[in-house]
Amino acid sequence: MWQVIKNLWFRDPKESPVMINDTAVRIRAGFLLVIPLYMGLTLWSAIFGGHWIVDGDTIKDTLDTDWDGHIIYSANVIRRTWDYTYQTWALLYGLFEMLAGLFVWSSRLSPTILIASFLARKQPAVWKPLTPKRYAWGLGSIMIMLCLAFFNPSTLATWVNTLAGHHLLPETANYMAFWIPLLIFVCIAFMWLEAVLGFCMGCKIHWLLVKLGVHKEHCEACNNIDWDEIAARKHTSSSK
Asked: Which of 38, 54, 119, 218 is 20 to 30 A from 69, alpha carbon to alpha carbon?
């Protein structure tokens, strides 16, 4: 337990490059999958659950008919409106978790990293570099921020307009693209692939950037380097 508190999911927080236990990463992805699933359920309810509600006490015959001879009635009709306060807090926590995993020092602030490291302590460690995972969590952060802006357009517009000193964004209309909430389902797919199949989209982005020459730091895990075996060989050689 002390080793988990000391190192979390890192093999050695002070080594370079920093290596993390992919077993714990996958456990954490399973925990955080709850957030996009909750948001997906919210969108499903908002789109398909907002039925019209008719107040029967207000139905009145207008004593008139339409062109097809149907009787026209008047009534008070209401429809559910959504308050995204809880969803916003869930997204903000998800954003905190994505950002917390980017650095060694901030990882100690993440409850899910501590819990995942504890649960993975008796499982065989699979060491992978931190850098490719940063691309995955950075991508997740961008998706979450876009969703936050979509669900809170007035709040964001007020902040932007206040900082800019003049009216840049409308405060009474949703100016975000209609397809942005669909990123929630993309996030569900990516996190499910990470948690269940161990497929990391961020690692693929890192590999592509290395291939294009944008990033010079290769992924040791992708190069099939067994660092535990190398360390064991060094220990054997030094003991002779």
From this structure: 54
- Report the DSSP beta bridge partners of residue 232: none
Q: Which residue has the tokens 């380097």?
A: 225
What is the rounded radius of gyration, in angstroms, for the C-alpha atoms of the chain? Answer: 26
Spell out the residues 6+ positions from residue 111 whose beta carbon is closer than 8 angstroms to its own: none
Residue 8 DSSP SS3: coil
> Nearest to residue 81, comparing CAs of 53, 55, 50, 54?
50
CA triple 119-92-96, angle to 5 deg: 50
Angle (CA) 221 224 230, round 5°:
95
User: 21: Cβ–Cβ under 8 A, 6 or more apart, which residues?
Assistant: 9, 10, 11, 117, 120, 125, 126, 127
Predicted structure pTM score: 0.76
**Domain range list for the chain:** 2-46+80-239
Q: Is the pLDDT of residue 115 over 90?
A: yes
For the chain, the helix, strand and coil percentages under 3-state DSSP, each to the nearest 5:
60, 10, 30
The tokens describing 47, both together, are 């789109």
CB 72 within 8 A of CB 97: no
Cβ atoms within 10 Å, residue 32: 22
Query: What one-letter code names the amino acid at 88?
Result: T
